[in-house]
Task: structure prediction
Amino acid sequence: MDSPERVGKDIRKIIQVGKCFAVTLPKEYVERHKLKLGDLVEVYFNGHLWIEPVNKAEIASKLSIE
Result:
């Protein structure tokens, strides 16, 4: 995970979507990373939780190799 220039912080509520749980992303984060509906994000967790946009070029190169 890259060191962020500025760390954003927000309080979000866990919601239930069907049988899963979800947390919404802040609009600022979505806009900064040029995300749109249907885009993939990677979710990392241990003692902390962090989310990163999926590197689309990396995924494309892996798919073309297989």
